[in-house]
Amino acid sequence: MSDTSPGLPGHGTASVLRGMAHHWWVFALRGAAAIVFAVLTIMNPGLSLFVLLAFLAAWLAVDGIATIAQAIAGKGPHGAWNWLDGLLSLAAAVALVLAPGLSLFMLVLMAGAFAVAAGVIRLVLAFRAADVMLGAFGAITVLFGGMLLAYPGSGLIAIAWIVALEAAVMGIILLVLGFRLRRLNREMPAR
User: Fold this and answer.
1) Per-residue model confidence (pLDDT) at position 2
2) Which pLDDT score is estimated for 32?
């Protein structure tokens, strides 16, 4: 594999990227789950709080399980960041399921805090892997989390649309990243 892989310049020697490339489909799965969540939320902006919580918890659970699967499968030195990202997603999902009576204000704060924390973790991973797409993933997550924290008094429909927009953007980024990693995986020599 050369250092001039299409779409991933300069990443021929990055061990973390090689490990991610072998499991490119996990990124695509995360992206597809995020897009499905976004479409369902946009189609039904007036969902009750409990249904919105269920959709959000399901998305976070799929994202957490998929990220932990990446951490288990990854052999690179940066697997701890994937573990932290996955465990944070699962913890947020469990909290939403176990406490369905949370006020909208608390939901907004939880979602915002999760997004900021996960975004920072993803930015660290992107910096360590020197990958722009991972950086965009983290930066957009921090941006949307900050928006939720800055305006917690917004209505349920506005929150649903913000969360759906973030999920759609993240889904697209993860699908693009997944298929770029797939291309890189095909170019790598067999071990």
Assistant:
1) 47
2) 94
For the chain, which residues make up each domain, given as ranges?
A: 23-50+100-186
- Burial profile 91-115: b = 16 or more Cβ within 10 angstroms, e = fewer: ebbebbeeeeebeeeebbebbbebb
Distance from C-alpha of 96 to C-alpha of 82, rounded to nearest angstrom: 21
Q: Which residue has the higher pLDDT, 13 or 27?
A: 27
- The single-letter code of the amino acid at 136 is A
Angle between helices 24-43 and 15-22 (to 10 degrees): 70
Rounded CA-CA distance 34/97 in Å is: 18
Residue 22 has pLDDT above 70, yes or no: yes
User: DSSP strand E in 37-79: where?
Assistant: none
| Encoded tokens for 39 | 């479409």
Cα(116)–Cα(8) distance, integer angstroms: 26
Dmax over CA atoms of the chain, in Å, equals 54
